[in-house]
Amino acid sequence: MGSGETLTFWLPMLYQKGTTFIIVPLKNLGKQMANVAASLKLTSALVTHDTLTKLLLKAIENHKYHVITISPELIVDLHFWGLWKQKSWCKGMDRIIVNELHCIDGWWGCRGEGFCPNT
């Protein structure tokens, strides 16, 4: 399941039925998180530039997944802005977890944007 630092965010997911977003800066870490979710019998999706399709986005919109592992740049992508603006969709969210939070300052450095880009 992971070390003590990740255990603290996996336990609530076992008892609450809403959607959890796990933001991870590395694809390999995202795959690891998706594998942990699968081992816990939680429906999950790994969202990367390679896996993001209209079908996957529709499934996310319909709350088909308990755990969604996603990269920082995709969670603020235009594909998701419409969802974030829907109160009814957001009510199905339990939590947003930022893994490797200490790295957050460097996530958008190459694009010259801060964590909250102008919209």
Automatic annotation (TrEMBL):
Record domain Helicase ATP-binding: where: 1-119
Entries under Gene3D superfamilies matching the protein: P-loop containing nucleotide triphosphate hydrolases
Protein origin, superkingdom: Eukaryota
InterPro entries xrefs: DEAD/DEAH_box_helicase_dom (IPR011545), Helicase_ATP-bd (IPR014001), P-loop_NTPase (IPR027417)
Molecular functions (GO terms): ATP binding; nucleic acid binding
Classification via PROSITE patterns: HELICASE_ATP_BIND_1
Name the record gives this protein: Helicase ATP-binding domain-containing protein
Organism: Hydnum rufescens UP504
